[in-house]
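TL;DR need structure tokens for one chain.
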Amino acid sequence: MNGTKYANMLIMSELSDTETRLKPFGVLNQLRDKTPVRYDESRGCWDVFRYVDVHRILKDPHTFSSRRGCRRKAYCLWILPSIRRCGIW
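>> reply
TL;DR here they are.
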């Protein structure tokens, strides 16, 4: 081996330096305890850190999906432009 270090490419503010990217276990343990689920505004996605939560999400694609918008048979709220103009909303 040539001594090159490879750090994971997960972009999170908590993993800001090479050492924490190489060994993220302490940071990930803290995140599991403090914020097991959170929305990351900078990346526009949810972070889920606990195994049981990840397992549930992966087993229930109907509830948890990366698909945007409303699916068939889903409950959706549509705000019509005409209602906004009338001052109802």
